[in-house]
Amino acid sequence: MARNYFDLFELPAQFDIDPKELAARHRERIRVWHPDRFAQGTSEERRRAVAMSADLNDGLKVLRDPVSRARHLLSLRGISTDEETDTNMDGAFLMEQMVWRERLEEGAARPEELTALAAEVAESRDAKESELARVLGDERATDLGRARVLVRELQFLERFTRELDCATAEAL
User: Fold this and answer.
1) Domains observed in the chain
2) How far apart (Å, rounded) are the C-alpha atoms in residues 103 and 109?
3) Quick count: other Cβ atoms within 10 Å of Cβ 75?
4) pLDDT tens digits for the chain (172 residues)?
5) pLDDT at 37
6) Inter-axis angle of helices 19-33 and 43-64, nearest 10
7) Cβ–Cβ contacts within 10 Å for residue 102, how many?
8) What does the alpha-carbon distance between residue 117 and residue 120 come to, in Å, rounded to a whole number?
């Protein structure tokens, strides 16, 4: 089982977290465990400081990103998103993706179309994150199947957003 980053930062294992609190707890802990503080210590102390610093930095990276945070919550509850092998997706979601991809290709020369599309995609992403926050509300969350679907859809949206950002940059 993966390291529980919520425990590492003494945060409740829930989707909604305060990013400022996370950053503050990271700074607090990294100050204690920074390898430079153990430069004169034993080899075991230096090794442990390096390992803890790596865990703290990995934890910050995972918990800061909504999709990674949700994936981590699911993995702590024994649920895999199987993004490498499971290609089964909701038909309506896939149709929406196809329409957006067509709009992306057609709008590549029109920045105003790309801006409108970006707003639509951001709205969809925000709605899915809000639903994820509701579904993964706390450690007793029960609708983990729906959460798994939302995580996978958000992964698609992240990838599409990166492509859209590239196309927008090229169009400008």
Assistant:
1) 5-64 (1.10.287.110), 91-171 (1.20.1280)
2) 11
3) 14
4) 458 999 999 999 989 999 999 999 999 999 999 999 999 999 999 999 999 999 999 999 999 999 999 999 999 988 888 766 667 788 899 999 999 999 998 877 788 888 899 999 999 999 999 999 998 876 666 788 889 999 999 999 999 999 999 988 887 7
5) 92
6) 170
7) 10
8) 5
- Cα–Cα nearest to 156, from 73, 100, 72, 116: 100
Amino acid identity for residue 85 in this structure:
T
d(CA 37, CA 81) in angstroms, rounded, equals 39
CB 38 within 8 A of CB 46: yes
The DSSP result for the chain, as a single string, is: ----HHHHTT--SSS---HHHHHHHHHHHHHHH-GGGGTTS-HHHHHHHHHHHHHHHHHHHHHHSHHHHHHHHHHHTT----TTT-----HHHHHHHHHHHHHHHHGGG-HHHHHHHHHHHHHHHHHHHHHHHHHT-STT---HHHHHHHHHHHHHHHHHHHHHHHHHHHH-
The whole-model pTM stands at 0.84
- On the 0-12 / 13-18 / 19+ scale of CB atoms within 10 A, 119 is exposed
